[in-house]
Design brief:
alpha/beta
Length: 154
């Protein structure tokens, strides 16, 4: 069964959290698709993943770069999975058009990250939670502790 993980960002930004989640995804031998809500957000993530750390980078690509099927991490705004990813990250307001879509059910995980300081993002995540539960996903909700650690809330 596909897991749907909802990450409520309150203490750290998406730019702070996403690289670590992507690193763990690659360490498990999985590929990822990062779907952003806008082209501007996708471009910013593309740049950020090359420069977020002086010690490392996350190998990734976009449709502009090509070699889509060989990218460990693929950044897009579209509902696509050209690299055969096992994990879909939804960021910047991106949501599936249909949580019951067969392509989503083939994934190991769907990870929705949302800004807890944005009332619209929280409301959208609540609706997404309902849709994921209705589509029979194993949905879990994660929130940051004051120390920045992730704790499962539901």
């Amino acid at each position: 069964m596909t897991e749907a993980l909802f990450y409520h960002l309150e203490r750290r930004s998406l730019d702070d959290v996403l690289p670590g989640l992507l690193e763990r995804t690659l360490e498990r031998g999985w590929r990822a698709v990062v779907r952003a809500g806008t082209a501007e957000r996708a471009a910013a993530l593309d740049t950020h993943l090359w420069t977020y750390s002086e010690q490392t980078f996350l190998p990734h690509g976009t449709a502009d770069i090509g070699f889509l099927e060989s990218q460990p991490i693929f950044i897009t705004t579209e509902e696509e999975n050209p690299n055969g990813a096992q994990v879909l990250f939804l960021v910047g307001g991106a949501l599936p058009s249909d949580w019951a879509a067969p392509a989503l059910k083939k994934l190991d995980r769907i990870v929705l990250l949302f800004d807890g300081r944005d009332a619209e993002a929280v409301a959208s995540a609540r609706e997404a939670w309902k849709a994921a539960k209705s589509a029979d996903y194993d949905a879990t909700y994660w929130k940051q502790t004051p120390a920045g650690k992730w704790e499962k809330q539901a």
